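Continuing the series of single-chain predictions for the mutant panel. This is the parent chain; the variants come on the following pages.
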Amino acid sequence: MVRVILKRIGLAFLTLFGVTVIVFALLQMMPGEPIDSIVPLDASEELRQVIIDQYGFDQPLYMQYFMWLGNAVRGNFGNSVSDNRLVLSVVSEALHNTLILALGASIFAFLLSILIGVYSSYRPNSIFSWIGTVFGIGGISIPNYCLSLILIGIFSVNLRLLPSTGMYTSGDYTFSSLRQHLILPAIAAGAMTLGIMTRMVRSSVSEMRSRSFVTTLRAKGLSEPAIMRHVLRNSFPTLLTVAGLQFGYLMGGSTMVETIFSWPGIGLIIYQSIFTSDFPVTQAAILIVAAIFVSINLLIDLLRIVADPRLRK
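Parent structure:
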């Protein structure tokens, strides 16, 4: 098992190394000189020279990469071009906000998908099962930006029940205000996860219920709730993988959802930094999001190895 774990960790680090190469290449592929994306166009020649020396733009490309990688490993991504704040501070604040949105969307999607998926597998021809099918297909088919606009139109514009922008009401930074602002973006961001997870739970549970061990357990006189616990335990590795990937997707920032709802998360930060040519923020945000996604996948792989003895070989 140790060999398998070390292999997974090695692949994770190799993936992160490839990500750093791609992220560094993004700046090099931009039109013009890389320094133009860091200093203002009206900067003095002395300031430009200081930035050139600091970032090593007069060095060969591979040296620039290793200098940037060394700074990134130490958490030194420089300052934001837009407001001169530390890039790491800007990205950390945005990640905190995205984590709140991702947790809200995950709670909504995971709990509802388990309820719908399990019930649909036991009552495949019921009305509730058809509702679950609609949720599954609709969640995958409707783009989250369309769903965002629909939710705003219904609950914010027409019914005036929920706010449609920001994380808090101005002057009210309580949990109650946060909860009200979280509901609509969490539903919009978690709709696709709900669709994917609902179909996955239903198919996985249905497959497990058709296995011979379920017939054996039923023949031994076990109650249906006890059998369900065995079914869910055997379905857990597959569902864990899908749930981990979906949470990583949500942590990556639902850019369109965050933009429409003005939710100050990592997706909105990346969107704004691209349009303002704030490439230090763009690079740092993409690299950190990729690192989080790889870390979540690594954690899910390790949990699957612990939960499923077949993967330890």
